[in-house]
Amino acid sequence: MLTQAIFALKGKPLNVCDLNRDAIYKNDELYNLMRSLDIESDVDNLRYDHVILATDADVDGLHIRNLLMTFFLRFFEPLVLKGHLQILETPLFRVRNKKKTLYCYTEGERDAAIKTIGRGAEITRFKGLGEISPHEFKRFIGPDMRLSPVEVDNHSVVPQMLRFYMGKNTPERRSYIMDHLVVGPEL
Hints:
Structural class: alpha+beta
CATH class of the largest domain: Alpha Beta
Number of domains: 2
Largest sheet: 3 strands, mixed
Distance between the termini: 49 Å
Strand content: 5-15%
Mean pLDDT: 87
Helix content: 25-40%
CATH topology of the largest domain: Rossmann fold
CATH architecture of the largest domain: 3-Layer(aba) Sandwich
Number of strands: 6
Low-confidence stretches: none
Order of helices and strands: HHEHHEEEHEHEHH
């Protein structure tokens, strides 16, 4: 029997990086997520084999993704270490004509799709999952969906990494980002 479920979050989840486990019990969204997965006492009770994070492919979506990964790494690290946490890569573009529809995950794929479809190609830039109809969405959650596993090479550095990227050290993090910022080609 195959079982799947969708857990829709309301807004951005709580950043639990510097909080203790009691915070989960005080936050409805995180508490309900933990309970729906049945991981409160042990991740071996995980109700589903895969926990797939599906967020918008914009800055807010990436922030939500990071907050959820922080939640799992902070309180349910074995779930991540055992390979249950994955990220659904969602398309940024749809290129179509009356005969063919192509979904593109990068600008390069979009450009190639435009060449494939040719004249009269209609290009849609998805701003979020809410702009994708349920009929379309099911096309990228089937057997051909693009999943990226959340992997940890060295679990002993996870607490330090979470404190740096998700903690209250805003000036140090800002400095690090500015020192390592890579600027792409101008559009």
